Amino acid sequence: MRHLKAVIIPLLLVIMCGWLLRSAYFEVRDRAIDQLNNQQTIMAETAARGIESFFDHISELLTGLSIMKEIASMDDRGRWLVRSFYQTHSSEIRGITRVDPSGKILYTYPEIQGGIGTDLSFQEHIQTVMQTRRPVVSDVFPSVQGFMTAAMHVPVFEDGTFVGSIAVLIPFDHLSRKFLEPIRVGNSGYAWTISQKGTEFYCPVAGHTGKSVFENCRNYPELLSLAREMVKGNRGTTSYHFDHIRNKTVESVKKQAAYVPVRLPGTFWSIAVATPEDELLEILHGFKNRWLLLIGLLMLVTIVCTSYALRVFKILKEEERRCRAETALKASEEQYRELVENANSIILRMNVSGNITFFNKFAESFFGYKEEEILGSNVVGTIVPEVESTGRPLRTMVGDFAINPERYVNNINENMRRNGERVWIAWTNRPIRNADGRITGILCIGNDITERRRAEARLRESEERYRAIFENTGTATVILDEDTTILLANTEFLHLTGCTREEIEGRKSWREFVVEEDLEWMVKQHRLRRKDPEKGSKRYNFRLVDKNGRIKDILLTIDMIPATGNSVASLLDITELNRQEAERRILEERLHRAEKMEVLGTMAGGVAHDLNNVLGIVVGYSELAIAELGGESSPVRSHIGEIMKGGERAAAIAQDLLTLTRRGVTNRQVVNLNSIIMECRELPEFAKILSYCPNIRTEWDLEPDLLNMSGSPVHLGKTLLNLVSNAVEAMPHGGTITVRTRNEYLDRPISGYDEVNEGDYVVLTVSDTGEGMAEADLNRIFEPFYTKKVMGRSGTGLGLAVVWGTVKDHLGYIDVESEKDKGTVFSLFFPITREEITREKVSLCASEYTGNGESILIVDDVREQRELATMMLNKLNYRVVSASSGEEAVRYLGGQSFDIVVLDMIMDPGMDGLETYRKMLEIHPGQKAIIVSGFAENERVSRALALGAATYVKKPYVLEKLGMAVRKGLDRPA
What we know:
alpha+beta; six-stranded antiparallel beta sheet; seven-stranded mixed beta sheet
C-alpha cells in the first residue's frame, strides 16, 4: 500500500504538474492569439478606412467634375477639363473615360486607338451605374495596358437627365503599395483582399490573384467558410488550415485571421490579415521546456514538498502569463500607435460630447496644437468654428454625430487652424461602441481639400466670367472647331439663326448657315487661316440663311484662338442697314428724277405756252392766206397748205407738252383697260405704227376678269400707242410685242423703277424682244425730248414723257426692266375701283354661289381687305366674322366653330396662313378653309392645300370667284 502510494503520489504529482503546464500554456497561448487578432483587426481596419477614404476622395473629385455642363455635352471644353483632371491626378489614376448613357465610350484619355465608340455596356459595373445612376466601384480586373486596376464610375446628369458616366482607372498596385503591402505580422503574416463576388485581387500566394477564392481554396473547407463570411460583408476573427510548401514538402499550417469589410460605392471588398499560429507559439516552446525540467527536478528533489512546489508553480505561472500578456499588449499598442502617428492623414477621437480624446502627430502639425494642449478640449471653438462660412451651424452638426452617425460617415466641413486660418477637410467618421453597442466615441480621419476647393471655385469663377462676357458681348458670337463645328454659341447667335442651343452646339457646322454662292470663298478663307492666321481675311461680309430660310446680310469678324485650332467669330446683322442704305439711294434717285421731271415739265409748259402763241399766228394766217387765194390752181396755195399742216403738227407737240404740266386727268370715268386696248387695236394709227416694221408680231394676253379702274380712255389709249410705238422702234429687224393685262394684289410694297405701294391694281404690261436699253438711258427715258428714235418718223422725244404724266395723273406707278439685246418690259400699275360699268360678259347665276347663312371666319391683316371680303360675303347671304391676325383667329376657334375659314397667306408680323391653318387643325381637325393671296401660288400655299384647304383664290377679290371658291370649300366632304 505504501509502495502503491509511493507510485500513486508521484504519478498524481506528474499528472497535476502536466495539467498545470497544459492549463498555463493554453491560457497564455489564447491570450497571445487574442492579442494577435486584435493587432490584425486594427491593421485590417486601418487599411480598409484608408481605401475607403481614398475612394471617397476620388468620388468627390469625379462628382465635382461631373456637374460641369461641358462634361455633360463633352464638347471641346469638356475634353480639355478631362485632360487637365488626368494630368493633375496622374499619380493616383491611369486613365479617365467619359461613357454615354448606352455604355459606349465618348472620350478617353490617354487616348487608346479605336477606343472611341467601344461598347462597354456588357460590363457589370457599367450596367450598375446605368441602372442605379449612383457612383459605383468595379471589381479589380486586368487592364488592356497589362496592370490590375479598378474602375470608379460617377453618373453624369444634364438638367436632371442621365447622360452617362465619367470614370477613372485606379491601378491596384498603387492601393496595395499604400495600404496592403505595409501590413506585415511576424515573418510570414500578410493581408489578402477579395471582392464582393469573391475574386482575389491581392494575395501574396502565387497564382491566386485574379481568380475566385472559392476556386483557389476549394480543398480547404475552413477557408471557404471564412470566404463566405467575407463576401457577406461581415467582420470577425477565425482560424483555418492551409498548405505550406517547405523544403519541397507540403505542410498543413494553421493560421489566425482577422477580416473586415471595405465599404465602397455600389459594392464592398473584404480585407483579411492572416498569420501562421506556429510563429506565435514559437515563443512559448521555451516556456514549455523549462516547465518540464522543473517538474523533473521537483519530482526528484521535492516530491515530498509537492504542495509547496505546486503553489510556487502556480505563482510563477500567473506571473509568466501576466508578463507575456503585458508584452504582447504593449507590442500591439506600440504598433497601432506607430501606424496612427505616422499616417499622412488627420486622425483624432472624440467622445459623444465632442471633447478630443486622441490627436495624432499629423493633426498636431496641421492644426498647430500640441496633444497635451488639445486633449479634453471640445472640437467646436478649437478646430471647428461655431458657424461655417456658408452659414451652416457646426455645433449642431457635432451634437448630431452621436445620434445619427450614419449621416456623417463621409462629411466635408470647414475647419480652422490655431492661427485662425479656415480650411476645408473631407472627414471619414466611424462610431466607437462599447460591449453593449452604445456609442462612446467617434473616430475621425480627415484629409485637407482646401486647395482643391479653391481651385474648383477659381475654375467656376473663371467659367462664369467667361460665360458672362461671351453672353453679353451685344453681338452674335460663336466658338468654332477646326472641323467647322460650332462648339459654343451665345444667345444673340441663337436669335440670329432661329435655332436652339441644343440644335447648334456640337451638332451643326457654320457651313449650314451660309448662302451657297458665298460658301466656297468662306471655306477658302477658313483653310488659309489654319495655314497662317495672318493670311485669311478677318473681316468681311457674307449672307446667312437662318432656320426659316430667311437670308440676312452679316458683317463677320473672325480670328484664331491662340494655342488652339479653334476660332472665335462675331456676327453683326447689317441687313436692315443695307436695306435702309439701298432705300436711301433709291429714294434719292427717285427724288432727283421727280425734281428733274418737275423742272422739265415746268419748262415744257412755258415753252408750249409761248409756242402756241406763235403757232396760232402761223396756222391762222396760213388759213386766211388759203382763203384769200381762192382757186385751187394757184401754186402758192399748196405751199401755204404745207405750212399750215406743219403748224398743226407742232401744235400737237405743244399739246403733249401741256400734258406734262397739267398733272391731272379731268375726264375720269369707270373703264375697263381691256376694252380700251381692244379699241386701240382697231385704230388706223395703231396699224400705221406697226407698218414701220412688217416683221413684228404682236401677242395679246388679256385677263378675262380684269377689274375696272377710274381714268381717261383717251389718255390711256394714247399711253398704249406710245408704248407700242416705242417697242416698234426698238425692233428694227422684227420681233415680238406682247401686251398683257392682269389683276394683282400686293401684300407689301415692291421696289422697281417706282416704289409700288401695297393694294389692288390693274397691271398693263408691254414687252418687246428688241435691242433693250443701257442703264444710263434707262434712267432718262421719261425725260422730255430724250429719245433714241428716228426723228421724222414717230420720234418726238415726248412719247414716254406723256406716258409718265398719264400714269401719275391716274395715281399709278411705272416699273421698267430692260437688258441690252434682250428687250424691254414696261409695267403700268393702275389702282382698281369697285364701281361697275356695263359688262357684256355673261356671268354665272348668283344662286350657284349664294350661301345659306353659313358662318365664315375671314383672316387678313389688311383692314380694307377684311372689309371688302366681309361686304362681298354678307351680300352672298353668309354670316361673317373677321380677325386681323393668325393669333386672333386661333383664339376665336378656341371658343366657337366656323363652317369655313377664308385665310390670307401673307400676314406680317406674326403667324402666316400656313402656320395659322396648322394651329386651327389642332383645335378642330378637318376644319374647312380656302387660301387667298396677292402673290402667285407658291410652295407654302401648296402645303396648305395638302393639309386640307379646299382651293386657292388670287387677290384682288372678284365677287363671283370668291363666292364660287367658298361654295366649293363648303360643299367639299369633311
